Each structure stands twice: as structure tokens, then as C-alpha cells.
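lol ok so funny story. i was supposed to be doing the assay writeup but got distracted and ended up predicting the structure for this chain instead. priorities right. anyway since i did it might as well share w the group, maybe its usefull for someone
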Amino acid sequence: MRTVTPPADGNPGRAPVALDGLRPVSLAEINERAALVTRTCRKYLLPAGLVPALFDGSEHRFGVLEIDGRSSFLYSSTYLDTPELRTFHDHRQERRLRYKVRTRSYVDTGTVMFEVKLKGARGVTDKVRVELPPDSPVDRLTPRTRDFLDRSLGRCRLTPPDVLVPSAVTDYRRTTVVALDGEERVTVDQDLVGYRGDLEVRMRPEVALLEVKTRGGLTATERRLHALGVREARFSKYAAALAALEPGLRGNRWHRAMGHCMDHPTRVRASASAGA
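and the output, tada:
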């Protein structure tokens, strides 16, 4: 598994934005209040400095995930795709029924999850996952994850792929905010780095990616975003990283957002391990 480099300030547990006014909530409480495994997810790209304004004065309505004194956590996701990148192209072509497969490592806690994200005809995302032993391979299917994938896709009448190979890795730092009434969950991602082969692409440090997960229409956070002049963005961490790093791929759905938030690809830094 890739070694994720902590933020430059040397404090990987520091929240990327100032959300100290929100009360800490545990992972168990978040899952109780707003698990939102089946959900609608909308994404927003905005200056990181605007994030505190979204929750200013909302201390009694929102909490922030905290584990062992940390409110910012390092994630590493290894995406698996077919050799011809079927899941990428299905996303690019906006197929009504599609899926995405990844192994997600929660670096700070050592937890490893194998996840299948299913996109339904009405734009609703259903994520199913299974926890793996910490020493499990993240870049290939095992008999256990193969069976889990086949059963998950079979329930949606999707044909499982014959072969999956590692296609890209994304590392980033995440803070999770939850509405205490369970209406929404908001993740704030920064320091995104995508890897493929010997190339990497980085999100600009002044940009934050917000994902608003809900079961309903526009949330209080989204209405506040709109008041600040921020509109929904077409962006996928996996698809944008892959389109940036693989010459010849058509990623035109994400080009505008990529130009707004991502630098040009470069060779992998010596401190990083080999990519997918």
C-alpha cells in the first residue's frame, strides 16, 4: 500500500479548515444520525477559506467527526477497473446504471474497506462495503472480495467483470461534518493527489472539494453555498485523476472543473511509492 505523506505542517490530525466551533461527534453517532449509505451526492469546488463561513453560527445544528482528538483524516483509495477502463467510460458516458470498485484505506486508524458504489437510474448512489484485514492486498481481488463484488452487482442485474486491475490511486485529507438532525453529511476534502504509473496530479492547496450527501433535495449547506455564489460542480476524484494522468483519455465532462482545481501532472516524487 502507498505511504501517504502527511500535510506539510507536520500535524496530520489538524483540520484543513477552521471548524473548531462545531462540537465533536463520534463515528458511531454519525452512523446513527446520518449514515446515508443510499443517497444523493452533489459536489462543490470552492476556495478553502470559504468553508468556515458555511457553518458559521450553526454550532447547534452541526457536528464534526473526531477520533482520538483528530478531526482530519488521511484516506487512500485504490480503484479497480477493467483493462479497457469500463467503469471510467460508463461514468464519462453517464450510463444510467453503473458501478465503481475500490479498496479504501483509512490510514490513521488502519481500517481497510472493499467498496462497491452503485449508481441507479434515478441518480441515487448505493454504497456497499465489507471490512478487510489490515494486511489485505488493496490492488487486486481476493476470493472474498470477488464473491462480494459478484453478489453486489448481481442484486442490481449488472454483469460482473471478468478481470479487474488497479487503475489509479487517490490520496487526500478529509474532514466530515454532519447535521445533527440527520438531514445531510458534508465531507471536506483537501490535498488530493492522484497516481497512475509513474505520474501524479495534485489538487491546488487553496481549493476544497465538498461532497453533500443527503436523501432529499437541496440542504441547508447547499443553500448557503448558493448564497455565496458556489454552484454544483461536475467532478469525480477517480475520473479526474485518470483523465489527467492517462494520455488520450476523453475526460471532457470534467475538464472545466479540472482546470479550476488541479495542477499539471508530474513525475511521482521520490518519497512516494510506485503508483497503481
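The helical segments are 27-34, 51-55, 86-92, 143-155, 220-227, 237-245, 255-261. The chain has a mean pLDDT of 87.
back to the writeup now i swear
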